[in-house]
């Protein structure tokens, strides 16, 4: 099948001039009078004729997608024109070359319906329709219970239909995609022969509603890391102070400190400081991880934060013989 020739389309686009009246015809017959000038085409018709030249060139070069885009624009420009239906034929040709036989069939049918008696090549187009219909297979798709009410069915970069329902695709082996908002994309390898009908029941998995943890966890983890670090520093300072006291006592006559007991006390404080440094590091690593898994959009508005008192406070408690954390909260 060929494209609608450029000359034929150009003739279609040129608006028919109204026949002159008898008086004007007699005036036009006078040799001294100039022939009436034809009114220029409208801007839409002029653009359509210009675009057709490019569309024809793209089609001949094998750029069927580019030609399709041009033909679609031409069809829009001819809105309301009595011969707009001619462009439907060329749209069908472009879809046919792109192996979208279902859309080509739709364009050819519209061409025949809208063209009526004006579609002089009706027999040829009807023969093409019958040939294309024999190239398509039918896939009847249903969605398992619990799935979405409707889903889009894609073949490559084309949407070929919706599910539940029937889609018509060229015979062969294909990978179809079923897409629905709130559900994971389902890909399925299928094989369908031309003029064959197969049935599929597909189960779509719902996407997780998890968007991240609350920012309160990050704030709490960071506060615990800071508090643990403060306790560790306090314990370390206390161990250093006891060590300095022991050194001073050793150089002082009559000092009554028990060196063994003091060394054990220093060792305990140093060990506790090391443990708290480790705890602080653990909470710090946790805070870093929480940065990436926190739903920051869930943070309350500033005015709400001011209106609500802090629910939890972590305070260090350090003494000569003890160290720990104090939780102060309102529930």
From TrEMBL:
Ranges that cross the membrane: 216-237, 269-293
Keyword Transmembrane attached: yes
Domain of life: Bacteria
Keyword annotations of the record: Membrane, Receptor, Signal, TPR repeat, Transmembrane, Transmembrane helix
Repeat positions for TPR: 85-118
Family annotation (InterPro entries): PEGA, TPR-like_helical_dom_sf, TPR_rpt
Species annotation: Sandaracinus amylolyticus
Protein name: TonB-dependent receptor
PEGA domain boundaries: 148-206
Record's signal peptide: 1-25
A Pfam short name: TPR_12
